[in-house]
UniProtKB/TrEMBL annotation:
Domain GTPase-associated protein 1 N-terminal: 18-146
Superkingdom to which the source organism belongs: Bacteria
InterPro entries: GAP1-N2
Name by which UniProt lists this protein: GTPase-associated protein 1 N-terminal domain-containing protein
């Protein structure tokens, strides 16, 4: 079968026009202007200047043949002169650069004519580009006059020449030893050509440049023509080659390795005695043909094709016949045409090396699946019969074939057939399904995963999974079904979800159970399951936990085994699995009970509280978890606890008392009291003799935020303070919050307020509380240590309580030393106060010094900046009593150097 003499064309502004340019050194007149030197002599109208500049970068105008032309060559010598014919794949497309000697220029220097052609992206070209060698359409003028007058071919085509043809190449390959050379070229170049085919781009970076020593450029063209006849012409356009490259120095080798040339033909003498040890370069010497066995599929097929002349001729014809059946060759790999030819005509090549050829054929038919094959039922049938026609039932056979599928092969057609064949044999082989030592191939995994996700795969897997269940049903182990599912999942199979869940739900129940009386859970945990299988079990355990929430009225969390959580990848449970995530983080928190560290424990506690929002229904927490949350959970994360958390106040109460000054704590307490129908204000208006522990906690917290010293009336402050003492008494009996510093501080503030209430003339009845006597005894020291106990954040001023109490303690301290003019009024005033004092509890009597301590602490709290304001306000309230100013300065606002906390607050005076 003889190819058409028509060469490649390229679409442009003119229908069928080739985009090309001529580049040479010429002297000429253009539009009346004389120009000289290297220039574009002519350029296709369809070729824009930007693209033309990129093409010129590929031109090497110097031509240095081994045997240059004489000074006065004959026409025959010119016609047969050495030329450089290069093909370079680029992002613009495949570029042909033809460089021929052009004699001397007008100054006598050597000149060349460089004819550059940009090929079109044709879907199914029929002519190999090597066949254009010595085409009559290449511009090859000689001498300045001819150069000046030359023009691009009028036909706008580059036709095939006569030097490289089927006949000439066959004669060339008939020489013994040349087949081994061609096999070596295919072996090295297979990878880069396959990549360029798969990526649909011509400029994929090469990894190796092959140096092929040749005696002439004509023989170089024949080598390229032979190689291109073993693949599709469209694929051959992706090969960078040159018929003449000189490599006299290391710099030449470096430049060649960095060029777009994959196959560089060099004069034999250039490599004589020149060892090549540079990475990225390989030498294939026709004078010393390689003897190693080929490894790539294309090279093996080329080896069979070059076994003898008959195989060569048959192969060339068969490749052409196969390609005629396809409408598009752009995604045809180098070895696919030969593989398909052998599959269509078994024995065409296999008789030469049957085993090697058989494996190469199957590899290529699986690795490459041209899109155009879908429209050819004959080729599809041939591929399926060749690859899938085996009757073998051993799953290992099919798995090994899946494992050989290249990662670049699409999971369609024959690859999906291989995937189905494997699964069909695997599900009927219990030994294979339950083999714990079976290794997984990433290539096979990719194919099985893609197939099992497809509509075809999902439908096929429904009965296949049942076959697998039946196959392992005779195994005595209760974990047999789990192991079977895990092995399929490891392989990449995605079994039907609903049925798989049914099979695995008993396993999930065993993992979620609190106890393991029969040891089933321990046996499950002894399995090394795939991550995806464990994820499926986590999802099912979540379902079991949610079911338990609906079946049980009250649950105590966590109850799951710590070993189960660790088995689920160290507790790395997705937050979306709310129930399981809560169990995991609670178990993690419980593990800190013997060695809690504040920072990490607080972070874990916060995650635990957040995880509880994923728990369905009502629940309680274990005492050890409650203790840790109470000690470490930040109050901010407890502001909106899950509604089903029944013992939340076992955590919330201690946490509030741990952070009583937090605005979040105050907000939580006010909202809680409001929901209970007892807003904070009611505790300053009504009298309660008992209330719940949560209410007591809220009052103890809120007293830290309530400005009782300055913004409440005497009666309201006394009512509120009495409730604080009652709350403190209630909390003293609760082991979770007993001895809380917040309770002691609240009690101190309440006692101080109630003492002031008595000194304001109102009777106070203290609640019955064992801790009160000691608290009263220690009150002075407590206030002296921390005066801020009396105040709410930001509270300033004087209020109603303190001025009258200070005045009365001043007068009572005078005893009988009261001026006559003041005696009656002071006496009556003190009697009213003393009557209230006598009617109040004994602990609140004779607290003269405590009133002074309270006043002094308030002054310390306000600080030196407000000292004069406080002094003036107290003196005004004392009405100019003689000796009051000196008494204040001595007892309340001492001028002597302060000590302790007062010294730090406002310094010595």
């Amino acid at each position: 079968m003889t190819p058409s003499a028509e060469g490649p064309t390229s679409p442009g502004s003119e229908s069928g026009a080739v985009r090309q340019l001529l580049y040479t050194n010429a002297d000429r007149v253009v539009d009346g202007v004389r120009t000289g030197g290297w220039q574009i002599l002519e350029q296709s109208p369809a070729l824009d200047d930007v693209t033309a500049s990129r093409l010129l970068a590929l031109v090497e105008p110097r031509l240095n043949p081994v045997s240059p032309l004489s000074g006065f060559p004959t026409p025959e010598e010119i016609a047969n002169a050495a030329r450089r014919y290069a093909q370079i794949p680029t992002d613009d497309g495949t570029v042909l650069v033809h460089t021929a000697p052009a004699g001397a220029d007008a100054t006598g220097r050597p000149n060349t004519m460089n004819h550059v052609v940009l090929l079109a992206d044709e879907e199914r070209p029929s002519v190999c580009t090597a066949d254009l060698w010595r085409s009559p359409d290449w511009c090859v003028p000689f001498g300045p006059d001819e150069v000046r007058a030359t023009a691009m071919p009028a036909s706008n085509r580059i036709r095939a020449g006569q030097s490289v043809s089927d006949d000439s190449v066959s004669d060339f390959m008939a020489v013994p030893g040349r087949g081994a050379v061609l096999v070596a070229l295919a072996e090295i170049l297979d990878g880069v050509l396959a990549q360029r085919v798969n990526r649909s781009a011509t400029s994929v970076d090469k990894t190796t440049t092959v140096l092929l020593p040749v005696p002439s450029t004509d023989e170089a063209a024949l080598w390229v023509g032979a190689l291109q006849r073993t693949c599709a012409p469209r694929t051959g356009r992706l090969l960078g080659f040159s018929t003449l490259e000189r490599v006299g120095t290391e710099r030449d080798l470096e430049a060649l390795a960095a060029s777009g040339i994959d196959l560089a033909c060099v004069p034999e003498q250039d490599l004589a005695g020149m060892p090549i040890h540079r990475s990225g370069l390989a030498v294939v010497d026709p004078q010393a043909p390689p003897t190693s066995a080929p490894a790539s599929a294309w090279a093996r097929l080329v080896a069979a094709m070059t076994a003898d002349l008959g195989a060569w001729v048959a192969g060339v014809e068969a490749v052409r016949d196969v390609l005629d059946l396809l409408e598009d060759h752009r995604d045809v790999a180098p070895g696919w045409p030969l593989a398909m030819a052998e599959a269509c005509d078994p024995g065409l090549l296999a008789g030469r090396a049957e085993e090697l050829v058989g494996k190469a054929v199957e590899h290529e038919l699986v690795a490459c699946q041209p899109g155009a094959i879908a429209g050819n039922g004959y080729l599809i049938g041939v591929v399926n019969d060749r690859v899938l026609g085996s009757a073998k039932t051993e799953p290992g056979h099919w798995y090994s074939r899946l494992s050989a599928v290249p990662v670049s092969a699409p999971v369609t057609g024959v690859v999906t057939g291989l995937a189905r064949k494997y699964v069909e044999t695997a599900v009927r082989n219990p030994r294979w399904l339950l083999d714990p030592a079976r290794q997984v191939s990433r290539r096979a995994f990719r194919c099985l995963d893609a197939w099992s996700r497809s509509a075809e795969g999902r439908e096929a897997l429904v009965p296949l999974l049942e076959a697998a269940v039946h196959a392992v049903s005779q195994d005595p182990r209760e974990t047999a079904v789990l192991i079977m599912v895990d092995r399929l999942v490891r392989d990449g199979v995605n079994p039907p979800g609903a049925r798989t869940d049914e099979l695995l739900i008993p396993v999930a129940r065993a993992l979620a159970a609190e106890q393991d009386p029969m040891g089933q859970r321990a046996r499950i945990l002894g399995l090394d399951l795939d991550r995806r299988c464990r994820d499926a079990l986590m999802r099912l355990v979540e379902r079991v936990l949610e079911e338990s929430a609906g079946a049980e009225s009250s649950r105590t969390l966590p109850w799951m085994s710590e070993e189960v959580i660790a088995w689920f990848d160290g507790g790395a449970v997705a937050p979306a699995l709310g129930e399981l995530a809560a169990q995991a983080v609670l178990i993690e928190l419980a593990g800190l009970i013997d060695r809690p560290v504040a920072g990490p424990a607080a972070a874990t506690a916060e995650r635990a509280v957040k995880a509880l929002h994923g728990v369905v229904g009502g629940f309680e927490l274990r005492p050890d978890v409650v203790r840790l949350l109470a000690d470490f959970a930040p109050i901010d994360c407890l502001e909106a606890p899950p509604p089903g958390w029944r013992n939340v106040w076992d955590v919330l109460g201690p946490a509030l008392l741990r952070e009583p000054d937090s605005p979040t704590s105050a907000r939580i307490c006010r909202e809680y009291l409001a929901r209970r129908g007892h807003p904070e204000a009611v505790f300053a208006q009504s009298v309660f003799n008992r209330f719940s522990v949560p209410t007591a906690v809220c009052l103890v917290v809120l007293v830290r935020h309530t400005a009782l010293m300055t913004r409440y009336s005497v009666q309201a402050a006394g009512t509120y303070a009495r409730h604080i003492l009652l709350a403190a008494a209630i909390l003293d009996g609760d082991p979770l919050v007993a001895r809380s510093p917040a309770v002691a501080m609240a009690r101190s503030k309440a006692l101080a307020l109630l003492i002031l209430v008595v000194w304001n003339g109102q009777q106070v009845d203290l609640p019955d509380a064992p801790a009160l006597p000691a608290a009263v005894q220690n009150l002075d020291a407590a206030l002296d240590e921390d005066p801020s106990v009396l105040a709410a954040p930001g509270e300033t001023g004087l209020g109603e309580l303190l001025p009258l109490a200070v005045t009365r303690v001043f007068w009572r301290g005078r005893g009988s030393d009261i001026p006559d003019e003041w005696f009656d009024s002071v006496d009556q005033d003190l009697r009213r106060m003393e009557y209230a004092e006598s009617r109040s509890n004994a602990q609140l009597r004779n607290c003269d010094n405590t009133v002074v301590v309270i006043a002094r602490s308030w002054a310390a709290y306000l600080g030196a900046g407000q000292s004069e304001t406080l002094r003036a306000a107290l003196l005004e309230r004392m009405g100019g009593a003689p000796g009051a100013e000196r008494w204040l300065d001595k007892r309340v606002l001492p001028a002597k150097e302060a000590s302790g906390l007062r010294r730090r607050l406002f310094g010595g005076r």
